[in-house]
Amino acid sequence: MTPEDLDTVMAARFSCRGFRPDQVPRDRIEAIVATARRAPSWCNAQPWQLAITAGAETDRFRAALRAEAAEAPHTPDIPFPTGYSGVYQDRRRTCGWALYDAVGVQKGDRAASTAQAMKNFDLFGAPHCAIVSSPAELGPYGALDCGGFVTAFCLAAQAQGVATIPQAAVASFAPFLHRHFGIPDDRLVLCAISFGYADPDHPANGFRTERATVADIVDWRG
Ligand SMILES: Cc1cc2nc3c(=O)[nH]c(=O)nc-3n(C[C@H](O)[C@H](O)[C@H](O)COP(=O)(O)O)c2cc1C
C-alpha cells in the first residue's frame, strides 16, 4: 500500500445526503465492519456495538423515527455541543450554507431549512442505518474510541464503494432508539451512520467541504 492509497479513500469519502434505494449485500456490510473493527481503543476495550438495519427494517425504523421527531423532545444520551464560536461557528456556517446552496434553500427561508434538517429523520433515503452505542461506564473515552470506529467504518465503506453519513441528529431521540433496538440502559447511544449507494445526481451530494491547513492544526515544538 502506498500513502496515496489511503489519501485516495480519505479524499473520496464525503457525507452522503441522497442515496439510491438498492440494498448493500450482507457480505459487503460484514466486510466493512470487519475492516472498521481494526480501529484502536483504550485497553483494546472495543466499546462499539452496532444495530444495523436492512430492507423492511430500515423502512420500519425510518417511519418510527419520523413520527418520533415530529413530537418528542430532544433527549440525547450524551450532551450536544453547548455552542460553536469563532472559527468553529464559521466552519459550521460555511458547511451549512454549502448544503443549502446545493439544494436551493434561500437565506432566511426557515421552512425550507427545517424541511432539509428533517431529512435526517428520513435517513436521507438510505437503505441501511447503523446505530452506534458505547458502554456508559467507559464515559467520554468510550465515545472517543467509537468516534475512531465511526471514521474507520466510513472509510472502509468508501473503499467498498458504499457511501455513508454519520448522524448525531438521530441520537437526539435516545430513549426511542433504546426502545426500538432493545439497547440496554447501561449503553450510551452516540450516533447513527446511514449508508448505501450514493445517488450522484442528488443535489445534496453536489458540494464538498473544505479543511483547515496543516499549519492551522499543528503547534510544532522542535
Ligand atoms: C459525529 C458526527 C455527527 C454528524 N451528524 C450529522 C447530522 O446529524 N446530520 C448531517 O447532515 N451531517 C452530520 N454529520 C456530517 C458532517 O456535517 C460532515 O462530516 C462535515 O460537514 C464534513 O463534511 P464531509 O463528511 O462531507 O467531509 C456528522 C458528522 C459526524 C462526524
TrEMBL record:
GO terms for molecular function: oxidoreductase activity. The keyword tRNA-binding does not apply. InterPro entries: Nitroreductase, Nitroreductase-like. Its cofactor is FMN. Keywords: Flavoprotein, FMN, Oxidoreductase. Pfam families: Nitroreductase. Transmembrane segments: none annotated. The lineage of its organism: Bacteria, Pseudomonadati, Pseudomonadota, Alphaproteobacteria, Rhodobacterales. This is Nitroreductase. Residues 11-197 form the Nitroreductase domain. Belongs to the nitroreductase family. It comes from the Bacteria.
